[in-house]
């Protein structure tokens, strides 16, 4: 999908502190509809905290977050999920005891209508609804992410790479407008990284999905290849934003990752 | 539960088949056989004493089903479930005794069935009230708030105030003929047995259905990973309270059923130990499994009956044992729990699953 100029997600001057640690300092960013926006930075830079703020798990002390023009800073995480923000986690946060299919079904939660009484009877409406959503899951998600062979497996028993994929499937099942991907490539081997990068591109570009992606990742090769724009954080501060080529040349980013020339001498003495 | 073992050559072609309950002819046959045993064979063959045992199993299972929903499916640890059973029992009894039923309802035997449902709803709401702290506290701390439910409800409100209603003294007793469903007066053990079997079957069906629809999946999500559940759009507080409601509702049904079995009621029927006992039942049966509730109830009730039998037969030799039966019961309960936690931490239902799997492939186990 072509990147539009419409700002879909906007973060305005947010501050987040944990006790004496200033995790985010005056961070602003604008994610345009249809783009892959990457956030990079060394460990402890505040990337995950930023995602948690957007997602609603943390509430920043100052600043606002806007989604499609509406302020969402005060909304609870489940409301933000309902309006179309979905995410995956750095450390896999799947429901380990249940099957892959049930995990993905849980991603459909906000689209299901059946309540306590119709659910307990499980005739007519609920049964029909379950079939419809099963159809959706099979055709749209399981097929896209190539996890047909594990749909009945218990998630906790699966290898790490597949668990990451199931987590993406679950986040995708919400049919989100923006998907926040927190290190989707961490701990994967080369082949799995390539697969995952392909899936991210699919989600972003395919006519059916056209989902805006906010990507937090350490794998610079992939980040620079697939992102439209990149933002770099260091110690809670935004140090650069721009296209991948701009970021690669940015002296601040190089400094943050490699340190000053003098530092190198000091450490190598 | 998720994946049903299919025999060679049997494939699902529709999602409806894959979502079905009884997915193979064998399972269907087994379940019909089981229902036939419960509703036809047992009533024809059992005698008085065994009906009593079966009713006790059913009562325990109904209570433990609520505990299973809370602990096993939503991770809300509760130690006050007897309070909600008590609320159900008292609601039902008071409705029968005090409510000015029009003659029509009495004649048609509608008073008791209606009181069962109202008992469920009141107990559910009462349970929600004590579930409110679960919005903020988790795990260990929730044990304390649910224990508060036990002591506030049974030891304070029921003993001090509710029991005084009508000036009957501490214990209520229901006159013969008041517990009537339609044309049937529930006055014999076989009728109580049928009531129990129907209630338990309905509750198991309801819970099993919930667990394969939106609500139950949300509960399991909250149990396994509440942060992830929240980011998927699940309103955690709402679903926790819903969980408390359903658990309380089933507890209320259990209480209202128990009234028909004893025809008398006093706060001493619902001690804190009974709450603990129900938790023990699901630990033994298997946490997070409906089978576990049934297996655990059968196991515990039969074990206690066996001990009672042993104590009575040894009574001539050691009269001391008869005096200390309660202590023996409690220590055996403790020992059984310890043994299960060490040797079979996933309960009888896991062993059952293993046996089933073994026979699915038997005699060629590869």
Written overview of the protein:
With 269 residues, chain A is of the alpha/beta class. Helix content of chain A is 41%, strand content 23%. Chain A has two domains: 178 residues, 3-Layer(aba) Sandwich (Rossmann fold); 77 residues, no CATH class. Chain A contains eleven helices and ten strands. Chain A has a six-stranded mixed β-sheet with strand order 6-7-8-3-9-10, sandwiched between helices. In chain A, strands 2-1-4-5 form a four-stranded antiparallel β-sheet, covered by helices on one side. In chain A, helix 3 runs parallel beside helix 6 and helix 5 crosses helix 6. The radius of gyration of chain A is 20 Å and the shape is globular. Chain A starts with 6 loop residues before the first strand and ends with a helix. Chain B has 366 residues and is an all-alpha fold. Chain B has a domain of 225 residues. Helices cover 72% and strands 2% of the residues of chain B. Chain B has 16 helices and four strands. Chain B has a two-stranded antiparallel sheet with strand order 1-4. Chain B has a two-stranded antiparallel sheet with strand order 2-3. The radius of gyration of chain B is 21 Å and the shape is globular. Chain B starts with 14 loop residues before the first helix and ends in a 5-residue tail after the last helix. The chains are: A alpha/beta (269), B mainly alpha (366).
């Amino acid at each position: 999908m072509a990147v539009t100029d419409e700002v879909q997600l906007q973060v305005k001057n947010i501050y987040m502190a944990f006790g004496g640690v200033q995790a985010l300092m005056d961070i602003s960013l604008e994610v345009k509809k249809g783009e892959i926006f990457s956030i990079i930075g060394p460990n402890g830079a505040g990337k995950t905290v930023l995602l948690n703020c957007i997602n609603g798990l943390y509430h920043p002390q100052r600043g606002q977050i806007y989604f499609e023009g509406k302020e969402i800073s005060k909304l609870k995480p489940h409301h933000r999920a309902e309006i179309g923000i979905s995410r995956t986690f750095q450390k896999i946060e799947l429901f380990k005891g249940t099957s892959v299919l049930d995990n993905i079904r849980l991603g459909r939660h906000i689209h299901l209508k059946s309540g306590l009484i119709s659910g307990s009877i499980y005739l007519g409406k609920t049964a029909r609804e379950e079939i419809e959503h099963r159809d959706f899951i099979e055709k749209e998600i399981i097929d896209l992410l190539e996890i047909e062979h594990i749909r009945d497996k218990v998630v906790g028993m699966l290898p790490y790479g597949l668990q990451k994929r199931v987590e993406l499937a679950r986040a995708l099942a919400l049919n989100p407008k923006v998907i926040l991907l927190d290190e989707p490539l961490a701990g994967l081997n080369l082949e799995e990284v390539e697969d995952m990068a392909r899936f991210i591109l699919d989600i972003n570009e395919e006519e059916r999905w056209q989902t805006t992606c906010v990507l937090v990742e350490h794998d610079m090769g992939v980040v620079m290849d697939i992102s439209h724009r990149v933002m770099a954080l260091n110690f809670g501060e935004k140090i650069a934003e721009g296209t991948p080529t701009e970021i690669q040349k940015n002296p601040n980013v190089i400094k943050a990752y490699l340190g000053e020339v003098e530092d190198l001498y000091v450490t190598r003495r | 539960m998720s994946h049903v073992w299919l025999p060679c050559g049997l494939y699902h072609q529709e999602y409806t088949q894959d979502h079905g309950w009884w997915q193979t002819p064998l399972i269907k046959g087994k379940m019909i056989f089981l229902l036939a045993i419960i509703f036809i064979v047992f009533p024809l063959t059992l005698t008085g004493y065994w009906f009593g045992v079966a009713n006790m199993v059913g009562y325990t299972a109904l209570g433990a089903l609520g505990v299973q929903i809370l602990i096993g499916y939503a991770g809300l640890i509760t130690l006050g479930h007897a309070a909600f059973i008590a609320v159900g029992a008292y609601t039902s009894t008071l409705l029968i005794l005090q409510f000015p039923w029009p003659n029509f309802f009495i004649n048609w035997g509608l008073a008791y069935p209606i009181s069962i449902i109202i008992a469920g709803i009141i107990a559910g709401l009462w349970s929600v009230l004590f579930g409110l702290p679960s919005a903020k506290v988790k795990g260990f701390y929730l044990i304390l708030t649910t224990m508060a439910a036990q002591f506030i409800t049974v030891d304070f409100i029921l003993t001090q105030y509710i029991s005084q209603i009508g000036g009957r003294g501490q214990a209520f007793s229901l006159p013969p003929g008041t517990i009537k469903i339609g044309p049937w007066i529930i006055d014999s053990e076989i009728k109580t047995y049928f009531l129990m079997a129907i209630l338990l079957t309905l509750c198991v069906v309801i819970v099993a259905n919930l667990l394969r629809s939106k609500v139950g999946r949300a509960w399991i999500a909250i149990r396994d990973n509440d942060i992830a559940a929240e980011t998927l759009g699940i309103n955690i507080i709402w679903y926790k309270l819903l969980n408390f409601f359903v658990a309380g509702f089933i507890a209320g049904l259990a209480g209202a059923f128990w009234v028909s079995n004893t025809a008398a009621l006093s706060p001493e029927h619902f001690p804190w130990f009974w709450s603990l006992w129900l938790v023990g039942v699901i630990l033994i049966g298997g946490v997070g499994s409906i089978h576990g509730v049934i297996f655990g109830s059968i196991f515990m009730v039969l074990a206690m009956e066996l001990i009672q039998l042993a104590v009575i037969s040894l009574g001539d030799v050691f009269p001391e044992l008869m005096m200390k039966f309660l202590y023996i019961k409690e220590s055996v309960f403790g020992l059984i729990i310890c043994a299960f936690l060490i040797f079979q931490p996933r309960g009888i239902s896991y062993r059952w699953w293993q046996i089933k799997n073994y026979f699915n492939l038997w005699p060629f186990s590869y």
